Amino acid sequence: MSNAIQLLRFITAGSVDDGKSTLIGRLLHYSKSIFEDQLSAISKTSAKRGMAAVDLSLLTDGLLAEREQGITIDVAYRYFATPKRKFIIGDTPGHEQYTRNMVTAASTANLVVILIDARKGVLTQTRRHTYLASLVGVPHIVLAVNKMDMVEYSEETFNAICAEYRAFAAQLGIHDVTCIPMSALNGDMVVEHGDNLSWYKGAPLLELLENIVIDYDVNTTDFRYPVQWVCRPQTQEHHDFRGFAGRIESGEIAVGDEITVLPSGRSSRVKEIVTYDGNLQRAYAPQSVTLTLEDEIDVSRGDMFVKANATPQIAREFGAMLCWLAESPLDLNRKYIIKHTTRMVKCVFSRLEFRVDVNTLAHHETGKLNMNDIARVAMKVQQPLALDHYSRNRSTGSFIVIDEATNNTVAAGMIA
Amino acid sequence: MKLVEDHNMSSHIFTHLDALESESIHIMREVAAECKNPALLFSGGKDSIVMLRLAEKAFRPARFPFPLVHIDTEHNFPEVITCRDKLAADLGERLIVRSLEDSIRRGTIVIKDPDKPRNPYQSVTLLETIAEFGFDACMGGARRDEEKARAKERIFSFRDEFGQWDPKNQRPELWDVYNTRVHAGENIRVFPISNWTEMDIWEYIARENLYIPEIYYAHEREVIRRGNSVIPVSHLVQPKPGEKAEMLSVRFRTVGDMTCTAPVESTARNAQEIIEETATTRITERGATRMDDQTSEASMELRKKEGYF
Ligand SMILES: Nc1nc2c(ncn2[C@@H]2O[C@H](COP(=O)(O)OP(=O)(O)OP(=O)(O)O)[C@@H](O)[C@H]2O)c(=O)[nH]1
Ligand SMILES: [Mg+2]
Fold first, then answer.
1. Residue A372: closest CA among A355, A393, A394, A391
2. pTM of the model
């Protein structure tokens, strides 16, 4: 059985102007994934701006404001395929102001390419993005030391940057970092090796992305099934049908299996696994299905089906790592809403335990949480939630925080 | 979403299409469960036909917990309207049609040139329809691979009370925990097939054996060559002096406003042959077919800011 994924989601990250968008453009161009009309459109725009060569960052920097300023503001998603794999790329912004958009992209990625400008080395934003990638659990990091053309393709410079970066990553428990020297502008080490970096023996980026083994990151042991929607057709034909639609977030389920409904704790057995394409005997994460039960028990959206042999913790008070994303700081006196799987509940933050300095990874006491701060908090919710550690289960270990007044998403939370 | 490809499931491999399908079903169910009064925008085009099949997968054996809504420019290809009506009727779902003509009669749309494309005006009628029914969420079949402004948009895309999109200030969207909350008068546009590509759509049409308007398949059609495009002759478009109509074997990659949707030369007569052509094409879907997108560098972004899908 092969667990290697066919569809790889990766993002580029790193500090401002390190060449993230240029790299994506180069990758698409060299892998022949740019269409003729796209290329002619960005050539025209580049010429209009008086540039000598085509600016490949225009491929992902599609907004007017981005083109005007020559920066990336929000994530652009791009899709391409090689005979080996399909890719979804997220090109993220380097500016600290737009960190929340980087977090948005990182939360669904399997791999992150962190770029560094070879002239500048490891910067605060490099560390911040690395920390955030590890916090949201992106399993693989590739370090691309870019703009090697500006440092005469120096092996020493490359080695020094890699060593510094590896030391930082090791503090986060990340030991699996592949480092590649690169010139996104000239195309060295993007799709082809090129002639300028003959001292480097590794594979170019695309080859690495095509071949890197990434097992799927679903927890296969603990069955978790948050009920999304109750299916009650109330038609002649399906008069008594009452199904619970949802997606299997982890584990698997078979007809006849005993399940427990959380938080009520009532039990029943799975009668049918209904899908449009016919009933199944067994289903696995991340399939979307509809389950019917043997017994008429009370179940609504927000409840979670689990199996008795692997239950999550049921809690009203818990600790979490929080990444604050809103411009207005966290207000300890206010109530917020959190959405955890399919359940929305009110919550308060009872204590800020510490804030993380992304440069040194030191923990600092803090009374405040501002935009882009990362902190450990203690929180209390109105109704109990069925929680797992984020490291064990991404779906049941994560939540978002919503400001009731503005309805904005103000934080990302991870049970830890 | 989680990625399980090639996940060997007893009898069946979980393919990339299965992964995309499950993601889309999950999104539609979130909308149905959390939004008070959602709608599914349904045009009779291929993407919205895929959306219908996904909705069947998400909600059957129940009926859809939302109506289908079409904003009709009355510049549509008749085959598309036929298909729209047939699919809605076959599914037994409610179809609401609102026409640009209604807005023109009300005076909220003032058409300068009756033969020009009507896409820019669609936003007006859409916003009026949203207000008429009080929809708080509209699901649409836009894909991120279509256009550079779409490539930037969230799956749950928040619109203010004027229907406007603020691309510089989008809500964070973490994992697949979607924030569907809006104040009265605001709404969200939801794009369940954001992550699908044109190729995925055709592979899905083939796999699910979906019925789509015949004009997506190669057929003989009377066209005029104008610049790099071939333009279909219709009651709205006639050859200008000096132009000559000719018969060509063509198919449509998108089916929009008849005055600005160009077909491509093709001999592909079924989904499988279209998949083969799609694999080798060097022009994007909109680049090949939507003349209105080429008027300025940012036409789509500007239209979206005004309330377009
Ligand atoms: N010399 C040289 N310049 C490069 C290279 N890669 C990118 N650049 C230039 O660096 C500048 C910034 O590139 P972008 O790709 O826009 O940088 P970015 O990391 O996407 O920036 P943000 O998204 O705004 O954070 C542009 O002028 C690029 O042409 C490289 O390998 N060598
Ligand atoms: Mg950029």
1. A355
2. 0.93
